[in-house]
What we know:
This is Probable alpha-1,6-mannosyltransferase Mnn10p. The chain is an alpha/beta fold.
Amino acid sequence: MEDDYDNYDKTFKPRTNPYFKRIKNSLQLNLQQLNSNFLSNSLIAKILIGIFTILFLSLFTSVPFLPHFKSTGPKVVLILAANEGGGVLRWKGPQDWSIERSSIANKKNYAKRHGYGLTIKDMTIKKRYSHEWRESWEKVDIMKQTMRQFPDAEWFWWLDLHTYIMEPHISLEEHFLNNLDNETYRNLEVFNPLELTTDLPYVDYTQPVDMIITQDCGGFNLGSFLMRRSSWSEMLLDVWWDPAMYEQMHMKWEHKEQDALETLFSTSPWIRERVGFLPLRKINAFPQGACSDQADDPRYFFQNHDFVINMAGCEYGRDCWGEMEHYKALSKRLQKPWYKFW
């Protein structure tokens, strides 16, 4: 008995049953699978929630579906003439600031939406031209500056402050750039409000269009126009900005750079052959009150879903702020699909 007691192991450990061991391993494996499935399902749920959120915002709000990513420089650059530094001829009031904010926000949103460049030029500093009678010729100089600022861009779109892009979802390529030959007309037989010379000898209309403008009741409209980078456009800008033009003609030409361009177009075949005209309402539709002598001509005046409204001359007897607010609200209303909640 004593020998048996001495040999007894006080640290007794029962033998593990193989059946229970298999059950234990199976339970551990199932738990691991459950944890793995839970984490996987949780990740999938997060992804689905993210996708659903993007789709919801895209369908039922004004948030764009996907941001525009662009690895290279912009093909198109918008040039907006502003007055951020304050008044020039008079103090800027609250309505002036409101107009400027609305116009700038409109161009910023449009450029961001389509991957375009945007440069806002403060016109107050351009008073440096006043000693040489060129305070109304800034567009030519600014166009030259912007081409240097964006060396990889192809098209440059000038917009006056009192313009508003009414159809921001439409790109310039879709609107007319991809089909210039069919969208533009090259001679003045189609429309010639100033009755300029309809044609010149030695004009080659097979040349590409490097400048896109419109005509209104007062002639060439430079409130919204485009220019393509080319050796032709560089030469045109140099001639257009030549001191002989403004020093000799500044007292005669009421509309400054507009009258200068009309003269160059009328007398120089090499300039005429690369200018393309768009119908006014394509990029420059007028509100009622502008071109009052042509009030019954539908070619001039804005209709719903026209691309751009140009409130030209609103500071002369019309309400610039009221027109800007009206067309801003109209654009928002026209672009709001029936299924969007806000």
